[in-house]
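Appendix C reproduces, verbatim, an entry submitted by the partner laboratory led by Prof. M.T., so that reviewers can inspect both the input and the predicted structure.
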Amino acid sequence: MERTEVTLHCQSCGRKFTLAQFEYDEMLANDMSRPIFCCNSCALHGWDPAQVGFARFRHENAQKN
């Protein structure tokens, strides 16, 4: 059986990370509005829209170079 993964952006630091499809489905089934973070430290820091936007911008520019 092939493990399916989902690529997400952390809602605290903006980094891309992968999560197993079944874990993602469980999280959505429990609470669809709950933010998903890449690690415990980001979960403790909380949701930061400005940081996410800046991190995405930084990662996109790094890929262009």
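The longest strand covers residues 5-9. Additional entries are available on request from the coordinating office.
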